[in-house]
Amino acid sequence: MRTVLSPYFDAPGPARFLRRGNFVEHPDVAQRGSKILAGLEQAGCEIISVLPCELDLHPYILAVHDKAYVKYLENAWSNWSQMPDASTEIVPNIFPHRQIAQFNDNPVAMAGWYIADCAAPIGEYTWRNALGSVSAVIAGVTCLREGDAAIYTLCRPSGHHASQDKAMGMCFLNNAAIAAQELRKQFSKVAILDIDMHHGNGTQQIFYQRRDVFTISIHGHPANFYPFYTGFDSERGAGAGEKYNLNIPLPPGTNEAAYIPALEQAIEVISNFKAEASIVATGFDTFKSDSLGCFALESTSYNEIGRKIKSLQLPTLFVQEGGYYVAALDENVRQLVTGFENA
Ligand SMILES: [Zn+2]
């Protein structure tokens, strides 16, 4: 399969990450992007590099995200950095209950309004990098629409925690959702299969009341795992979208033997839905030694995951979500792609 690279796939990551109250090095380090690219090259992927700002991405972004939120992201850092003694990255320190709070355009107030947690710091280049991810998925969708059977898009930052109007968990624009919306122009039913370690809460929120995009996420059980408040199996969609969202939470320590039946269940659901195209929100943080994960998948597990996904026989867009820097990250990527290609 061909691979579309965001122009900023190896840009420096955020400076700090809050983990159980401690500031630690941010797990989304720049080498992570290069390591994923190495895996794609080892799998024999032809690399397509997207140039920055080739086209106006607003129509694609606004098809999914709230206009005021997008405007906030665009201007957030310049407004923030004009405050005296402002940090180099925006991290909110107050989180309003929107139903009872009044909107306030103070930069600190806006940060809490539009950023859902402390894991999505906004720096000078965050908006630029987020646009780079969107340009990659739009290019990937174009390739699919022109006949590619499968495309891998290497996006940093990733997107699946970003909802219609909030950033969260290193995600600002929901790349998979934007791609799904664009694919809908050609395909009447699109499935999003999220195999990242964490629940794809933003993607779920965006399509929760729709039945044309089926969202499925296999992830660490939120009882003990981020994002804690969503990802339970009782969340099945609402209104017209009822029964068109499926969460498959799995316990800590889940290994391949326990994971594959969950994936088979997801694949059966996508098949019964009669999806015409699929998006795989692809995370490798399910790997046994990932710093943010709690599953126990091996490198070879990704080969089997790729094989199972191929069995859907659908035009497939892999969209990069998580999976942090470990020595085996390139091998995990290679296994997924070759498993898919050789099935
Ligand atoms: Zn993740």
Description:
There is one protein chain. It contains ten helices and ten strands. The protein has 343 residues and is α/β, with parallel strands linked by helices. It has one domain: Arginase, Chain A (3-Layer(aba) Sandwich), CATH 3.40.800.20. A hairpin with a 2-residue loop joins strand 2 and strand 3. Helix 1 packs parallel to helix 10 and helix 9 runs parallel beside helix 10.
Task: Give the arrangement of secondary structure elements.
Layout: E1 2-5, E2 16-19, E3 22-25, H1 30-42, E4 46-49, H2 58-62, H3 67-81, H4 107-114, H5 126-145, E5 150-154, H6 175-183, E6 190-194, H7 201-207, E7 213-220, E8 245-250, H8 256-273, E9 277-282, H9 299-310, E10 316-320, H10 329-342
Parallel strand pairs: 1-4, 1-5, 5-10, 6-7, 6-9, 7-8, 9-10
Antiparallel strand pairs: 2-3
Helix pairs in contact: 1-10, 3-4, 5-6, 8-9, 9-10
For the structure shown, list the relevant keywords.
343 residues, globular, Arginase, Chain A, single chain, binds zinc ion, 8-stranded parallel sheet, two-stranded antiparallel sheet, alpha/beta
Summarize the structure.
The chain has helices at 30-42, 58-62, 67-81, 107-114, 126-145, 175-183, 201-207, 256-273, 299-310, 329-342, and strands at 2-5, 16-19, 22-25, 46-49, 150-154, 190-194, 213-220, 245-250, 277-282, 316-320. The protein is of the alpha/beta class. Helix 8 runs parallel beside helix 9 and helix 9 runs parallel beside helix 10 (329-342).
